[in-house]
Amino acid sequence: MFKEISRKNAIHVMLVYSGGCNGCDIEVVNCVLSPYYDIEQYKVMLTWNPREADILLVTGPVLKRIEPALKAIHEAIPDPKLVAAVGSCAINGNVFYNLGGDLGPSEEVAGPLAKVIPVNANIPGCPPRPEDIISAAASVIPILAEMEV
Amino acid sequence: MEKDRGEADVEIPVGLVHPALLEPYRPRFFLQDEVVTDCEITLDAQHRGVERLMEGIPVDKCNIITERICGICSCVHLWNSVRVVEKGLKIEVPERAQYMRVIINELERLTSHLIFFGHALEIIGHETLGMRAFIAREPFMILLGELSGNRVHYACPVIGGIRPRCNPTEEMQKKALTMLKPAAEYLKDYADRIIQDSMIMSRIDGIGVLTKEEALKYHAVGPTARASGVDWDWRTEIDDFKHFDWDVIVLDEGDVKSRVVQRILECFQILNIVEQGFKNLPEGEIRNKDWKLGEMPITACYHEAPRGELLDTYALDEKGNVRHYKCRTPTVTNLGAMEVACLGEHLTDAVLTLASCDPCLCCTNR
Amino acid sequence: MDVINFIISTVILAVVALFFGPVFLGIERKIQARIQQRIGPPILTPGTWSILKFWYKKPVMPNSPMPKLYHALPPATVITILVILWLTNPEWWGILSLATLVAIVGIMKFEEMMYVVMGALSRSILSVSMPYGDVVKGAVTKGKIRRFFEGQSAVRFIKHITIASFPIYIAIFIPAVMAGSIYVEDIVNFQGDFLNLDPILFTIPGFIGAVVYFVGYVAQLNDYPFTIAKAKGDLIEGGPLEYGAHARGNYYVLRGVWMFVLSSLFVTLFCGIPPLVSLTFSAPGIWQLVMHVALTFVLPILVSVLSAFGPILTFKQLYPVSFGFTAIGVFGVILAL
Question: How many whole angstroms separate alpha carbon C85 and alpha carbon B250?
């Protein structure tokens, strides 16, 4: 009983920028640091330490230079954990993975996030609005409360 | 007097994921008793190869991709890329379109400076005033969302004019003017509050000094250079800005406090320009469709991004596809100048110095 | 009877500290949020529910040369801190005649040293071992050692211990000078018993001592503006970076209990109300414990207000602030003579 109550009432979120244009990151930072949106009132707190996090938010298409760091951070988070891909770049690569001229598409992109680590939630938009990010975070919390481990 | 890079005992690398850096790059600080004697910054983590994927695509598609090089300076990237074609093929832009391009660009510059204040105050440790920067920023984001349809990535300029969605109606103009007044008041109170706080000013006064000779030698650009005494702003060379009446702000000391104060004063100039724009917006059409795509030699265009000088060059072949696209962004040289400016400081102050040039790594790495 | 009262009061005081400590963490975050003009988390979220959530996570092995010692540090420190609280319990004064201010100061020193040991034992992936090519051909190769953030935090803690713990030590000795003894029992009896109190707080040297104690309290908690050793701006969190799962819950308990215990020490020494556990309803009875706990809320609320308005002070600003308040404390001691 205490397990479900405590997991629903205290969630820590960690943000990793994996190579995008930073539009999505600014909207996530807006959710956390702007008193207009204030995700802390929904019991979600921001942290910069993977050992303290429950949910990992990743923005941007995953680049090959950042892929080892992203995998190491994902492994450092204790179970149970969830991963959310924020923005079109993390969901399907956006313009960087799918477009190309005579020289072909970009060789630096490892792919959408689902090819690198297992993903539980997708938040579409370029960039998604802060209200979308908050509602996605709120809808993913019951999954976390019910996870075994 | 040039600072020397000296001997060091300890190396502390500051990682790709860090609350002070936000975007992924890798500074390595070499310390002697907690004082930085050398610094090496590696900036290749966000390289997406944008210039390579532009080779041979139609020019309209190229412009949309340049917008997504960066999220904070997206309008100026798109505008400069469109200007290359307009300059090369000699396409005229109607006056109403020129005014709207300037207004949206300057509003974006304002939101970029406000994020800088929020971020710098977070690094100093003052979370409260950092959050007030976001309160000050929100009315401008809402205004931009109503003017163009999206909060970030406005897609306002197109070749020959602006997109029809960005054309404001009469009541939109009146609404914008009434929205600007209280936001400007709040910004003025906020700026006064920062300048009068002695604890914050004692943290940033005299830190990370970049002299005028060093700024010219390392080619610092934008507000970073203007805070060290270099008097240059590319907006004075652009025709669209000649309809407006504004000042270039130049300060002398070159420390972190000058860079912060310079951006605060620039914010008030921006509000001035935007107010003039909405009051004097001329009637007329918004797009010139009287041109044809054809071959164009490599043309270069300079512009003033929120962080400094921006250069775009490309050529068009006979079908109108982009060839030899190249883009050079301001933070490449600004971070190089900061690498020199942070020598001789304590580690905490050195990290603050790197963040004070407002680096935008996604632009740097393209 | 004595031994049974001893055991019951010890257990009840430990439970009170372990319950109210995390609540103080939540109150601090809520007050900071209200000052920042936003709603902020509910009071139980940053403390109580976070600790329970961390205890239900799967255990992880920290990156550390001595993982078992690293994980054992928070519970050991919590028990040592609780000894400070137990030394102010009247049941302890008869049985062990160790309830002096010297013992309390020694235990505070031990708690400060723990952060240095934590910093030496932690190797997070967020600094040196980030998987990125640093030591490659063409890179700068100065520096004999590559230090982690936690190691730098340990170095800074040693400087912090040397400078920033003077205010609280001077402030603790002001009541001793006024009462003429270093035994806690004598200091409490000097201020009268519960029904006719004459607290030291309402005298001039006592008030000066309270102000200096407050500054020392903020420095001991490593809260803004005295947080250079754990600065979020460059060291992210310092020594406790590698605590994950249940160990992080223990670390939060340590922070909360430290907040409670130092505030409770203030109430005992400066207001003269020790945490007497007696389960009767006649005066003073249970009301003394209720009053004591209610008064412990005052200092954390003041700390929250101060920390919302303070930037991180670097060492060159910390030296004058700390020495300035120590000088005020010495002045208070002289007045008290």
Answer: 59
